[in-house]
Write a structure and sequence with these properties.
Elements lengths: L18 H18 L9 E7 L2 E10 L3 E8 L4 H7 L8 H7 L2 E7 L4 E7 L21 H19 L10
Helix pairs in contact: 1-4
């Protein structure tokens, strides 16, 4: 109940996802992932991107079917010795904490629609298009949009600054 009877302070407008924005973001992510994978998506294929001595990413192809593929995109462990020196030593990090701080997401590629959608991220095992707010896990209303935008930023980082170890073959 509001102190002002004609006020719209307590009448929140229900959040509706912007499907055009989300679909264009997913289409852009699909093209970036194809570029990163060099358009070669085979099961168990891995590609690593080294940004610097503290930051590396790995993309793993988990499953390939006729119309879809499932990828895992994760930040890899950095040089713990160098990290300890950077943090002025003293704090021993457990592997559980280190894993919790490393972002990880599962991505479904839809080849027929040419879309890439984040289907899980960190501790969110099924990303819904919309969440009521507030909620128990304090997820944002547009969590799906934000996670897909985060993927887009990761992909641009890997393309712009990443270095890949590849084996050269003699001809």
């Amino acid at each position: 109940m509001s102190f002002f009877p004609n006020s719209t302070v307590n009448k929140r407008k229900k959040y509706q996802p912007n499907l055009v924005s989300l679909m264009s973001l997913c289409a852009n992510n699909y093209l970036l992932l194809l570029k990163i994978q060099a358009a070669q998506i085979q099961p168990e294929q891995q590609r690593r991107f080294f940004i610097n001595e503290y930051l590396a990413y790995r993309i793993t192809v988990n499953e390939v079917t006729r119309y879809t593929s499932l990828l895992t995109f994760e930040q890899e462990a950095c040089d713990q010795q160098a990290l300890g020196q950077t943090l002025n030593q003293g704090i021993a990090q457990s592997t559980t904490l280190a894993k919790a701080l490393r972002p990880r997401m599962s991505i479904r590629l839809y080849h027929d629609a040419r879309l890439a959608e984040v289907i899980s991220s960190q501790d969110i095992y099924q990303v819904k298009p919309r969440y009521n707010y507030p909620n128990k896990r304090m997820l944002q209303q547009d969590e799906k949009q934000q996670i897909n935008q985060f993927l887009n930023e990761w992909l641009h980082l890997c393309l712009d600054h990443g270095q890949v170890n590849i084996e050269l073959q003699r001809i």
